[in-house]
Amino acid sequence: MTAPDPTGNNRGTRARRDRAARSPWRQPLAIVGAVLVVLWVLVAVLAPLLAPQGPLDQVSPKLQPPSAQHLFGTDELGRDVLSRVIYGARISLPLAFALVALATVLGSVVGTVAGYFGGWVDGALMRLADMVFAFPGIILAMAVAAALGPQLRNAVLAVVVVSWPSYARLVRGLVLSARNAEYVTASRLLGSSALRTMFVDLRPNVAGPILVMSALDVGSAVLLLSGLSFLGLGAQPPTAEWGAMVAAGAENFDRWWVGLFPGLAILTVVLAFNFVGDMLRDALDPRTARAIRE
Fold first, then answer.
1. Residue 283 in contact with residue 276, Cβ under 8 Å?
2. How far apart are CA 183 and CA 62, in angstroms?
3. Do the Cβ atoms of 234 and 150 come closer than 8 Å?
4. What residues are paired with 79 via a beta bridge?
5. pTM to 2 decimals?
6. At residue 58, what are phi and psi to the nearest 5 degrees?
7. What sign results for the dihedral spanned by CA atoms 287, 292, 293, 294?
8. Which of 5, 34, 94, 177 has the most crowded CB, counting CB atoms within 10 A?
9. pLDDT tens-digit profile of 126-173?
10. In the chain, which residue ranges form alpha helices assigned H by DSSP?
11. What is the spatial distance between Cα 291 and Cα 22, in angstroms, rounded to a whole number?
């Protein structure tokens, strides 16, 4: 009977300690971001239970400063600002998730087809993406939203139009680097169709970076939607949407609470998803994973 190798046990213990020390969840900002995301999602889901008033209820004198009765004060129509901020989460967050999902699907399909087939298909699709990249994102979104009409739905479509080329570029590069890999060649030799190869065999190589980019883009989507609403091209009164509320605060600049609290809501959401995106990048980056294994 052989004696246990204490050196091997020490190496295993040291490896586990290093793995725990390098875990993305040991990063304070990652924890803060995850907690903020969970809290805002709960606020959106439980808005009718958390809000002291309805978002459109004119129950108090207008432009009252924060007090025990109205923690965030009231707006220019006597509506409770806290209630409108809470209900605003039910608009901004679901729409941001929806438009990021649409941009991800559209951009991933375009990028996969362009990278896999190459040639004139790649050239045509990438020139289309370049046409979108030729304009500043917010300017193009404003133009699309203005052409379609000042509605929240049209603002979402405008943000999707300016967002999908980034995913297409990313996925195209990943597919180009993986399409000649041995496992892809083996899949072709076994008779797999191009559709199966693109969306089954190549998918594991693009899923991680796309997930990271999507998490980062949720915050950007909230910011873009709020910007369009601030300019009057998104949510229209009396909708409780954060960008429109900040616009109302700009019109009542001496009443600081009208625009401050919805602005803080936008700030915390954007920061939270940026922190979560950074955490996902560290967790899914192959170099980080290799360092953890070592």
1. no
2. 66
3. yes
4. 58
5. 0.82
6. -100, 85
7. positive
8. 34
9. 999 999 988 888 888 999 998 988 888 899 999 999 999 999 998 888
10. 6-21, 28-45, 47-50, 81-117, 119-133, 137-148, 152-178, 182-189, 194-196, 203-230, 242-251, 256-284, 286-293
11. 9
